Amino acid sequence: MKFGVVRFPGSNCDQDAYYALLDQLGQPVEYVWHQSTDLRKFDCIVLPGGFSYGDYLRTGAIARFSPVMDAVIEHARKGRFVIGICNGFQVLCEAHLLPGALVRNVGLKFVCKHVHIRVENENTPWTSMARRGQVLRIPIAHGEGRYVADEGTLAELEAANRVVFRYCEPNGTVTQESNPNGSMGNIAGIANERFNVLGMMPHPERAAEKLLGSADGRVLFKSVVRALHTV
Amino acid sequence: MPRVKVYVTLKPTLLDAQGRVVQNALTALGYDNVQQVRMGKYIEIDLGDNGRPIGEEVAEMCDRLLANPVIEDYRYEVTE
Q: Does domain A3-230 have CATH number 3.10.180.10?
């Protein structure tokens, strides 16, 4: 049972993820350099937030071709767990492990604040310890987090309950006002068809202890730890 | 050596947030005939000869890296 946190040049939430997993959740975790090509000892790979390769060309576009990404794709293909947070979500979309793309926020602003997201599907390895409709208070920090996809992809995501999190009001109502970046369908996080790959813009690793304002992110990591133990 | 000029633009169906802001700024400067502004990327590539047809190779570069087909369109021209 081991987590691997990938470090790309420009990753900057790698230490937050490492700290949350080790110190707050007591899980074994190691850093994985982007040149690594062997992920066999890891059960869950974390692609952290940051600005990999300076966000040059497009967010995640260069990181997607890092040597480690072939191994991440293989890891995912085997049904093992991968979570991409913020820049990690952008990398997963560029790598086609998740559909759609993340583009410039509608307001053009870099938005850094706590938001509320609603758990839309509790039958995933990432949310099994949450309730459907549960509202989590988790920070976002991004300039390019507007989720977009074509109509067919959106319909597919909705039909298969692959929208895992949606931006909402504190009471759980999904409104345009609670959408911080203009994402289609207020989408904050999605999973792949098998639900072993999750991408989300909010930072659960920054909401892993009360001291930091919220411990609501813990439920994700606790859920995946439980899933690892029952695989 | 052939120089390839690649233009990458956001798909017309997508809201171009940057373009919208630039449009508003132009309107504020008094250019009230500005109907729409869309922004994109311009990439220049000097390409050595490797025997492959230039068009084929450039299209491949665009599909794999330079543009994201989910959100962007591209076109290119080759100059000597």
A: no
**Which one is the CATH code of B3-79: 2.40.50.140, 3.30.1280.10, 3.30.565.10, 3.40.50.10280?**
3.30.1280.10
Tell me what ipTM this predicted complex has. Answer: 0.86
- Residue spans of alpha helices (H) in chain B: 17-28, 54-61
Within 8 A of A176 by CB-CB distance, chain B residues are: none
Query: What backbone torsions phi and psi does residue A11 show, to the nearest 5 degrees?
Result: -65, 140
Helices (H) and strands (E) in chain A, counts: 5, 11
pLDDT digits (tens, 9 = 90+) for B17-35: 999 999 999 999 999 999 9
For residue A66, give how far its alpha carbon lies from the nearest alpha carbon of chain B (Å). 13
Chain B residues near residue A104 by CB distance under 8 angstroms: 17-18
**Interface contact A108, partner B, CB < 8 A:** yes
